[in-house]
């Protein structure tokens, strides 16, 4: 089966799995996932599964990427913060749906590879930073939307503070294992409203920067 046929099959699977936002589906169709997948896994680019990308990190399952993106309810005017660039795939999807994406990664090697992909795909509205995701990106705050692509044990306070009034934060929350939940937080004039969107499995969000070898 060709990559194109596999992509069409995946889009149909996402629809059956509850992804109804046509803009999200269109972004997934337009961004070549194979460009973000390590060579040994190329033939699995359009399988609905997570794939390893090195440094103990993963490229999330397309169903989860689509679900988190749909939960953000994006529009073209928004400024979005992503914590955990990884391969760059989620940022690339976001770049098709909002005005600008700011994305933070703690591993220099992963960030360099992601930046090369953004250049190759001519995604000019993605700005990257090497840094500790727990601290967010204070200089660019507030953000209308924030997405965290690794699971903290508690919601990082700095990120709540960097969310605009009316803004939405989507993140997996909980220790590694089977008890992580996908959470959507909306900041109101009076505080934060929280919704549970179901169980997920993510690598942990780690404090601080790695010691470079």
List keywords for this structure.
globular, 6 helices, 28% strand, single chain, 213 residues, 7-stranded mixed β-sheet, EC 2.1.1.77, 9 strands
Topology:
Layout: H1 3-16, H2 22-30, E1 51-54, E2 57-59, H3 62-71, E3 79-83, H4 89-95, E4 100-105, H5 108-120, E5 126-130, E6 143-148, H6 157-161, E7 163-173, E8 180-188, E9 191-200
Parallel strand pairs: 3-4, 3-6, 4-5, 6-7
Antiparallel strand pairs: 1-2, 7-8, 8-9
Characterise the protein shown here:
The chain is an alpha/beta fold and 213 residues long. It has helices spanning 3-16, 22-30, 62-71, 89-95, 108-120, 157-161, and strands at 51-54, 57-59, 79-83, 100-105, 126-130, 143-148, 163-173, 180-188, 191-200. The strands form 2 sheets. A 7-stranded mixed sheet has the order 5-4-3-6-7-8-9. A hairpin with a 6-residue loop joins strand 7 and strand 8 (180-188). It starts with a helix and ends in a 13-residue tail after the last strand. The mean pLDDT is 93.
């Amino acid at each position: 089966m060709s990559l194109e046929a596999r992509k069409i099959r995946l889009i149909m699977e996402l629809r059956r799995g509850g992804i109804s936002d046509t803009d999200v589906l269109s972004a997934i169709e337009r961004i070549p996932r194979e460009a973000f997948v390590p060579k040994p896994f190329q033939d699995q680019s359009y399988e609905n599964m997570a794939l390893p990308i090195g440094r103990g990190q993963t490229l999330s399952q397309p169903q989860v990427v689509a679900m988190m993106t749909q939960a953000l309810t994006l529009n073209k005017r928004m400024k979005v913060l992503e914590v955990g660039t990884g391969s760059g795939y989620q940022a690339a999807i976001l770049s098709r749906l909002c005005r600008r994406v700011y994305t933070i990664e703690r591993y220099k090697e992963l960030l360099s590879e992601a930046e090369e992909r953004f250049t190759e795909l001519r995604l000019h509205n993605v700005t990257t930073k090497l840094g500790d995701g727990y601290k967010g990106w204070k200089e660019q705050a507030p953000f209308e939307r924030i997405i965290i692509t690794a699971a903290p044990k508690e919601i990082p306070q700095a990120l709540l503070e960097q969310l605009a009034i009316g803004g939405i934060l989507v993140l997996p929350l909980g220790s590694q294992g089977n008890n992580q939940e996908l959470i959507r937080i909306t900041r109101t004039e009076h505080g934060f409203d929280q919704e549970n969107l179901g169980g997920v499995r993510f690598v942990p969000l780690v404090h601080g920067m790695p010691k470079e070898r």
